[in-house]
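Q: Sequence in, structure out?
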Amino acid sequence: MTTLRKKLLSGGATALSGAALLLGTGLARPAAAADLPHAPVAYFASGADLTGRQTPVDITDTTCRNLSEPALSAVNFTTADIKVYYNRDCRTGLPDRPNDWYYALGSLHWANFAFPALSYQVVRH
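A: Exactly. Output:
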């Protein structure tokens, strides 16, 4: 009888901890999730999690564009993709390390960058 009781208690504890986990996941959202736009828009932000000064992106302009200031995050809620570069003039590579690396910010996405973004190029489909 004691064994059965322990199983029931451990099953109840499992159910409670599972419910707490589900509740915690519903409440644990990225800080920017509450501030995401609800219309087509693309911009770079000077701070992480889409905070700070915003630099809008013209998705019809597919030329390389240098940002007026480094960006730590961006949002792209458009039908275009954006190639994000950590060097000026859309040069690939990490800062001061030439290679073929850049960040692809896809349509309907937002991101925090590992390094400050300095330039970008819109890719239309």
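DSSP finds one helix and six strands in the chain.
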